[in-house]
Amino acid sequence: MDEKIVFMRLIIFGDSFAHPHKADYVWTNQITERLKVKEQINHANNGASIEYCLYKLDDYIKNDYNASDKIIFFITNPTRVPLVDNDYVPDWASLSSAYDLIKGESRQDNAVDHVNEHSAYYKTHVTFTNPQQSEYKFYTALSALNTIHNDTLALFSFNKLHKSILNLHWRNNLIISSTIGYDIAGNEIEGDLESINDLYNDFRAHHMSEINHNIFVDCVVDSFEQKKDCFDISKFKQNILNKEKLQLQQSDWSNWFNRFIG
Amino acid sequence: MRLIIFGDSYAEPFSADWVWTNQLTQFDTVINNALGGSSIEYSISKFYEYFENDYQKTDKIIFTLTDSCRASIVHEDYDPNYSAYVNVLDVKQTTGRDDKGTNINGDHYKDYLEYYKTVLRYTNPITNYYKYFMVLSMLNNLDNDVIVLPCFEKFISKIKLKENIILIQLPLIEICKAEVTDRHHDVSWIFPNLDFRPNHMLPDNHNIFANTITKCFEDKQDHFNLQDFKQNIISKHNAHKFMWMKKLFL
Questions:
Q1: pTM for this model (two decimals)
Q2: CB contact under 8 A, A1 and B159
Q3: Predicted-complex ipTM score
């Protein structure tokens, strides 16, 4: 690791909860100034797997590491497809492409051909994937973050961690949030989400409305300043969208949203 | 004091006394989780299971770091030794053989051939170095003495390892290859499913291996040197024939 300090940066890894967007209000575009860092490098990618994020983290440590960097790492759903390759589009890992095709949704991207060509792979992946048996990946991701010494905020996109992992002796400036991204996203919607798949038709940037992006930024800043988890699910606005509206966003609001989606 | 082992065929348990994992008599208990043909992910999941349920601060740990390109499925209905699919595909491609060694998993590869083709299509050994990083960072959190043995390629860690983590520089396959006199002419014998030497070594080298492990634990240094191991002691044909001898020993 090259430990030359150039200037303080924020490095982000993760999935759709951190994927870059253009709109000023999204948390990733507010946070650089609020944390008073000079630069943000965002490696997050919609639909990406834990494996993809760890690959990017390893690459960062090998080629671009600075001891003064601050790091935000979203730990995503461990059941995503673990393929990591230059030819494999990280978005495919979430299985949403396969899910949409099964539902008969039309897609404009190259995922259609890919899923059709490799449908046997995806079927086998689903057959031999069990969420409980995939939980070792949480430990792997936190261990990887624990091995560097930067101020780091780890957030979980979808899953609640076992207390046993949280109680392990992690370094002091590795802040592990117990607030789940999916809960912030889901609580915005009146009524219950039927399943995780409800979010696949969600075109909210980072699955949050504007007002919660602001709150999210405050929580990140406070967590880094106080070196503890300052997220609290009750701080976030709840019941501000109905489910129909959320799903209508794709057809009715997509033009409006497309202006912001990077 | 206990020794906990994770890994693949280089460490999997055999009953014969002369196998290296059975020679480490300084330990009261050896718990061997290694399994031939298994993936790095399988070993990590076994490690996590151990860490959650059975971890002791005084344990010593050995972790053999297998081929990063193995299929990464970890599931109760998936036999972990299916992961080494590359052996089967490569053996067929390289030698055209489809003998006993390649049929070890019955119809599984036939039924799931398309899955393995996709894995192969999107697998790159260089990209997969991140898996070694995953293992080392996981082990680097421990205060236990840990020996990490790369099986197929040398690996230099970019993360700073603690003094109690001993990363061996000599890939284990070098010991296994050097035993074979005519290894330079044809490498098809290397594929582990055609090699029936327990842990891919003959008895003399099991003794040396066990002694070397003991030394590594004693002073927390890497003592693995290829020249310390017996070389040119078996022909490639005998490496295959060893499968017939297996019953005599195990």
A1: 0.89
A2: yes
A3: 0.88
